[in-house]
Design goal:
By secondary structure, the protein is an alpha/beta fold. 28% of the residues lie in helices and 27% in strands. The longest helix has 22 residues. It is elongated.
Length: 790
């Protein structure tokens, strides 16, 4: 017996999920709805199938093809315009020469088709409608039958006063070929509205078979979520992989961090990744190759293939379409639907029942309570204060990095020479390779400095006399995060003007692509590490022979730690690794570093700056540049030493420019900048204490510094800054890098972050409670001004 599957459905009630996908291809437990129907037909020995298509037919034919991969034989009949259920089946009439079954390809059921066919034959029926009982029949076509099953009346979507039965039409029909004689070819005709009422009027043998089993028409988004829950609860018989533990179904190639927690019932698609301390809770379905980052928390979340969920994000009862991205620390609530390729920025909230149409970009910090259908969101600048940053899987893919390489090449010009380096991570290596492709395709000659650490790149671009440098690194906060630091020919960060030029080229795609002999050369450069260490040692050599310095590395082969060890030895220090008690000690953990004093206390940033001031005074410097967020005790130390204080913005470039003018760095053919370069920062303090024979612990401050960040949507930042400005006291406030206001107990600095939808707060006071009070005061002001605007 042949089966006809009606698979032309548009699925308008499932939008935005069906904006670019026919309803039969919408996944249920990672398989298209229509595949579940095919599996049901195959279980009941229907292997010769015809499928009628209209909306996006190529999606169906490309997936199922001739059906051989599913053990079936399939053919397709594509409508130029919708012909209704009967009109579409009429297209296949020439191949329907005996009893056949008609099913919808966009429903979910496990009804016993064999029993339904047997009923049809026993009754010598011309047409048999498969019926099921539902609790609320108002949205369906109700069918009334006699005791023997013969249909007596149709009620299409009745009111409660017309509900005389709870048996409804499932859209599954067993028909004799003669039924199609009532359908005129090429005309729009419907079985339930036209053909079956006419057969009833003629007194034809028309029967209804009330079936047991599960059936759902998946008629809206709420029902779509419910049927997935029903599948996981075992209410419908479908094919599932073996369960691991309590109802946890896992396909092949899945990797789950040992610290992650899974609580069934749930379904995890092939190739998915679940990160450290993540939680995937009951009734969640993860599509193939989804990525759940550290500390993300999911309950009742349905994720289609390729979805990426950022660190610390919470998903509750939502649906995310194919390749959607939810960036870190966001929240998506019940009934929210994200279409394919939607990107929700970090620290955003999508409120219940909100729908976002495919391809939309929701800016970070958004609070979305209304659906987004039309229009495009403004993209954030590609440059951050750290360079180019993003997730190597999403916002900063290798393709994007190559495009940036082309843009940077166009900015410098054909024939320019660029240094590229990377840190010791796989992410950075991948990013550098993508950069090299773009740079060389843009006609720029690439000098590859290999794997480096400790900001060596900014020294090397000066030493080699190149036109610029790019260093690919990985983010310490985000394992999949990539960072590309950009340096000019002098080893300085790119100016805002240069960043805007490159960004303009990138956005307009206004870059050439060269080939053949015009492709840039690739040159490997060796010996940069040795040159850098020798250069540093000339300026930071131990002032006391045999001066002992402790060094603690975790792990023992940490690249930055090994570099610091070599620097100390070349500079004449005795490096002690086993017993560091009573010694000034450099501690390096996973390429993060700090200095601890002779008593084992960690130097704070403020302590380092106080030491830097003393080092500048020892060199007879008349002035010192200090970032605006430093403790007032650092500035007081400088004035005590007879130095003038120049306050700079916090971004490194502004400090480097001021430090150059004041001689606070090491100027020469290759400039060195403590505070920017880890080895120079270490060398600055060790040279001081080894020459003066002073202890690190002698200048540690007794002040209290607090920091915090307060979320604020991008759209409200301007309003909040205006209100802060209006309510500040000009006589006690510095309007420079944000707003820095003095108070009776100390000071507070409020800075709107350039890269995130937050305000960064800094405070200082004589007691910890007073410093915390200043932070809380300004945090409350920001929140009140934000609410006030609404």
């Amino acid at each position: 017996m042949k089966a006809v599957i009606m698979a032309g459905g548009e699925g308008t009630r499932l939008r935005p999920l069906t904006c670019g996908l026919p309803k039969p291809m919408v996944p249920i437990l990672n398989r298209p709805m229509m595949e579940h129907i095919l599996n049901l037909l195959k279980r009941h020995h229907f292997t010769d199938l015809a499928s009628t298509l209209w909306y996006l037919p190529d999606d169906v034919t490309a997936y199922f093809q001739d059906g051989s991969a599913f053990g079936l034989n399939m053919e397709y009949y594509i409508e130029r315009e919708p012909l209704g259920t009967a009109g579409s089946v009429k297209n296949a009439a020439h191949s329907l020469q005996s009893t056949f079954i008609v099913m919808s390809g966009d429903a979910l059921t496990d009804i016993d088709l064999t029993a339904a066919v047997a009923f049809h034959k026993e009754r010598s029926s011309l047409a048999t409608l498969v019926l099921t009982r539902v609790a609320n029949p108002l949205s369906y076509g109700v069918v009334l039958t006699a005791e023997n099953g013969r249909i007596t009346q149709f009620l299409e979507k009745p009111t409660w006063s017309q509900v005389f039965s709870d048996t409804v039409n499932t859209g599954i029909y067993i028909l004799e070929p003669e039924v199609l004689d009532l359908v005129e070819a090429g005309q729009k005709v419907d079985f339930s509205q036209d053909v079956f009422p006419e057969l009833l009027r003629r007194g034809a043998p028309l029967y209804g078979y009330v079936a047991e089993g599960y059936w759902s028409d998946v008629g809206n988004l709420e029902i779509y979520r419910q049927v997935q829950k029903d599948c996981l609860d075992g209410k419908v018989r479908i094919e599932l992989p073996p369960a691991h533990g309590e109802g946890v179904y896992v396909e092949e190639g899945v990797k789950v961090d040992p610290s992650a927690r899974l609580e069934g019932p749930l379904y995890i698609g092939r190739g998915s990744r679940i990160g450290p301390e993540a939680y995937v809770g009951p009734y969640s379905v993860l599509g193939p190759f989804t990525q759940i980052d550290a500390r993300a928390n999911l309950k009742h979340a349905l994720l289609w293939s390729g979805v990426r969920v950022g660190r610390g994000t919470r998903l509750r009862g939502c649906v995310c379409g194919k390749n959607a991205v939810v960036e870190p620390d966001s929240e998506i609530y019940e009934g929210a639907i994200l279409g394919d390729k939607v990107r929700v920025g970090a620290m955003s909230t999508v409120f219940p029942q909100t729908k976002v149409w495919p391809g939309k970009i929701i800016p970070s910090g958004s609070r979305l309570g209304r659906s987004v259908i039309w229009g495009s969101q403004e993209q954030r600048p590609i440059f951050s204060k750290f360079g180019i940053t993003g997730d190597i899987r999403g916002s900063l893919t290798p393709e994007t990095i190559t495009q940036f390489g082309l843009s940077y090449a166009a900015f410098l010009g054909e024939g320019s020479k660029v240094l590229v380096t990377n840190d010791f991570s796989g992410t950075a290596d991948l990013a550098k390779r993508a950069l090299v492709v773009g740079l060389r395709a843009g006609g720029v000659h690439v000098h590859d400095g290999g794997e480096v650490t400790g900001r060596l790149t900014r020294f090397a671009v000066q030493a080699l006399g190149l036109d610029g440098a790019l260093h690919a690194g990985s983010s310490r906060q985000e394992p999949m995060g990539a960072v590309i630091e950009c340096w000019d020919a002098k080893g300085r960060p790119l100016s805002k003007a240069d960043q805007r030029k490159i960004e303009g080229i990138y956005v307009r795609e206004d870059y050439p692509r060269f080939g053949g002999q015009d492709i840039g050369d690739f040159i490997q450069v060796a010996g940069l590490r040795k040159r850098y260490l020798r250069h540093l040692a000339k300026h930071y050599a131990s002032r006391t022979p045999g001066f002992r310095v402790g060094l603690h590395l975790e792990p023992p082969n940490d690249p930055l730690g090994e570099m610091i060890r070599d620097f100390l030895r070349i500079s004449g220090y005795v490096v002690v690794s086993d017993n560091v008690q009573g010694l000034p000690t450099v501690v390096v953990r996973n390429q993060d570093w700090y200095i601890q004093d002779e008593e084992g206390r960690r130097l704070t940033d403020q302590d380092w700056w106080r030491g830097f001031v003393l080092a500048q005074a020892a060199k007879d410097k008349k002035a010192v540049a200090l970032p605006v967020n430093l403790s007032e005790t650092v500035a007081e130390d400088a004035r005590t030493q007879g130095m003038q204080v120049y306050v700079t913005k916090m971004e490194p470039l502004f400090w480097m420019e001021a430090a150059t003018e004041l001689g606070n760095g090491v100027c020469g053919e290759q400039d060195i900048f403590p505070h920017i370069e880890p080895l120079a920062s270490v060398g600055e303090l060790l040279a001081l204490i080894s020459s003066k024979q002073v202890r690190l612990s002698s200048w540690q401050g007794k002040t209290h510094i607090k920091t915090a960040k307060v979320p604020c949507p991008w759209s409200e930042k301007g309003t909040v800054m205006r209100r802060l400005l209006e309510n500040s006291d000009p006589e006690r406030t510095l309007y420079f890098d944000g707003i820095k206001e003095q108070s009776g107990s100390g000071w507070a600095l409020v800075v709107p972050d350039d890269d995130e939808p937050v305000f960064r707060l800094y405070s200082e006071a004589k007691t910890e409670a007073e410093a915390a009070g200043l932070i809380e005061h300004y945090a409350d002001l920001i929140r009140s001004y934000e609410r006030e605007d609404k």
